[in-house]
TrEMBL record:
GO terms for biological process: tRNA modification. InterPro entries: Ferritin-like (IPR012347), Ferritin-like_SF (IPR009078), tRNA-Hydrxlase_MiaE (IPR010386). It holds the Pfam family MiaE. It comes from the Bacteria. One of its GO terms (molecular function) is tRNA 2-(methylsulfanyl)-N(6)-isopentenyladenosine(37) hydroxylase activity. The lineage of its organism: Bacteria, Pseudomonadati, Bacteroidota, Flavobacteriia, Flavobacteriales. This is tRNA-(Ms[2]io[6]A)-hydroxylase.
């Protein structure tokens, strides 16, 4: 359903289970960054009313998710740690060339966002099925549905604002590139890395 070309190695869950505090901190910042992405799309493209409306709702939802993850951290007697660099996103953002028209820039941002949400959804599914912690298993099962909806929404907007054939080609090329990235990732207790 997600179109990902390389699934996460299930052994990644074993890495996560050894340091739940780290994954929850990384996850909290991922939710915060997702809200920030939604806000940046509003700021960059205020003339796209449907996008603005959806991104406003998304920013609210993502900050709600941040709050939920933060509550899990506090419930376990921890505090939110410092933000870490997201190697996955840093490398992913190198795919499309810089420059181009405003519309091209929008399509690229939407495709990046769709892929990040798709990978998050896949990781949440894996955690919901494989993690021994029952509370977190249920938590990630519930979040998985939201991430799938976000992924499809971003793709829908990319197809709406760009040439459909070009968008499809860019999407497939980005999926191939991301599969190459994933060969070297999945060895850390981070949501994407």
């Amino acid at each position: 359903m997600l179109g990902l070309k390389l699934p996460t190695d299930p052994r990644w869950v074993n890495i996560v289970e050894k340091n739940i505090e780290e994954i929850l901190t990384d996850h909290a910042y991922c939710e915060q960054k997702a809200a920030s992405t939604a806000i940046s799309l509003i700021i960059g493209f205020p003339e796209k009313s449907e996008l603005v409306k959806e991104m406003t709702a998304l920013a609210r939802e993502e900050m709600g998710h941040f709050n939920m993850v933060h509550d899990k951290i506090l419930k376990r007697g921890w505090v939110l740690g410092r933000e870490r660099k997201d190697e996955y996103v840093i490398e992913l953002m190198k795919f499309f060339p810089k420059g181009g028209s405003k519309e091209t820039h929008l399509v690229h941002k939407l495709l990046y966002a769709a892929l990040i949400e798709a990978r998050s959804c896949e990781r949440f599914r894996l955690l919901s099925e494989e993690i021994a912690d029952e509370e977190l298993s249920e938590f990630y099962r519930n979040l998985m549905v939201s991430e799938a909806n976000h992924y499809t929404m971003f793709l829908k907007f990319a197809r709406k604002y760009g040439n459909k054939e070009e968008v499809e080609q860019k999407w497939q090329d980005l999926l191939e590139y991301e599969a190459g990235l994933m060969k070297d990732l999945g060895k850390k207790e981070t949501m994407h890395g």
